[in-house]
Amino acid sequence: MTLGPLRRAGFESFYRISGRSGFLGEVDRMDAAYRGPRAALDAAAEERLRALLSHALETVPFYRQVRPVASADLADPAAAVRAFPVMTKAVIREQGLALRSERAEERTHWNTSGGSTGEPVRLLQDRTMTRAVTETKMLYMRWLGFEPGERHLLIWGAPQQTFREGISLRERVYRFLHHQQYLNCYEVSDGVLEGWIDEIRRRPPSVIEAYADAMFDLSRYALRHRRPLPRPRGIITSAGVLTDERRQAIQEAFGGCPVLNRYGSREVGDVGCSCPADTPIHVSELMYFVEVVDANGRPCAPGAEGDVLVTLLANRSMPLIRYRIEDRAAWADGECSCGRVSRRLLTVFGRQSDFLVAGDGTRINGTALTTLLYWVPNLRRFQFRQVQRDRVRFLVEPEDPAGAETLRAAMAAPLAKARQLLRGTEIELEVGPIAPSRSGKYRYIVNELTDPGAP
Ligand SMILES: [Zn+2]
């Protein structure tokens, strides 16, 4: 007997009970909107942007004070938004609660970023935002033909497994109903890759969602050792750069299935995803207003690389307007052969993560280390530098230099966990300012063993 129809029923009941019976309907509506006509998509996205800007001007102390535009200017919101200040992590840390709306939703939670840049920042997010993020993730899976109830494998960071913490009952139920299985990619060795291959062969997934690095590692290993893998409907990679070389290797290892490149981050959700027809990333314009700007803040023409600014259209509780996500990208030109009319970004640059090597040779994904530092107070930024096979420097920079000793004390627990993870290497904690790399770009993992040219 197959569990398929049962799971599908369980999935639907889950969304009905949690008051979201329209979940799949909403995903289908979004899907239709992105297929055109373009004028209708423009009108819908503009309306959302106008509503957000107006809400920010009225209810957020910071924007009321800065007053970048008058309400009358909101007739053309895409032009008006360019008068708003660029939101950087420094401004967020400095302004704190002045960025929170006086009409925040009742149910909100603090999220923290830092996964990709090593500079933690706290953001208030509400239920509407959480829903929109979940719907968007499902939309990209639907592009591959995924049906709710089918097997969904995640090769993803699983801190609970790495740090031997429990998984909540709620999370277990959620995973069961969504037919999700996690394979932890924080610690990877050849033995781990063998285990993944066995698991994928034993229970072939419909869709695989994975860190780009881990998926490439697995695919290269499977090809080298001639271990053919079943072809899923498709693979979605995220949290890392999917180069052409990586995409080809993944495709080859998994029977030529489509490989989609999803772009997003912990603080904003999934801004866009490539489609089965081509490599540029379709921006989810109903959720995100995206700009690419040059050094002077002017919009870049298609093909010209610039800084990515993201305005989150879903989160009213702490509007994030023109957020500098610290990635670089360029707009693609022309239309996509898949028929979707949404704007597309060419390859996004900047999401570079590296790994550290434990004493026994296990490769430790950089993200595993950043999860230890999400909630440390007075932490401005951090960096792990592997300087020798058995030696890692762990640098932390305090927000307020006067609190350096408090920061050192607060690091005791994360440091113990990092030592457990990087068993067999010496980790030295250093508190003080961290210099940027030669390129001016700041990196949170520097492995001088694997990258001899590292700054
Ligand atoms: Zn397309």
Q: How is this fold's topology laid out?
A:
Blueprint: H1 4-17, H2 23-34, H3 38-59, H4 61-66, H5 77-80, H6 89-95, E1 108-112, E2 122-126, H7 127-143, E3 152-156, H8 159-162, H9 169-177, E4 180-184, E5 187-188, H10 190-202, E6 207-211, H11 212-224, E7 234-238, H12 244-253, E8 259-265, E9 269-275, E10 278-283, E11 288-293, E12 306-312, E13 323-329, E14 344-345, E15 355-357, E16 363-365, H13 366-370, E17 379-388, E18 391-398, H14 404-410, H15 412-421, E19 426-431, E20 445-447
Parallel strand pairs: 3-4, 3-6, 6-7, 7-8, 17-20, 18-19
Antiparallel strand pairs: 1-2, 5-16, 8-9, 9-10, 10-14, 11-12, 12-13, 15-16, 17-18
Bound molecules: zinc ion.
Mean pLDDT: 88
Task: Look up the CATH topology of one domain.
Answer: GMP Synthetase, Chain A, domain 3
Report the helical percentage. 25-40%
Sheet with the most strands? 8 strands, mixed
| Structural class by secondary-structure content | alpha/beta
| Overall spatial form | globular
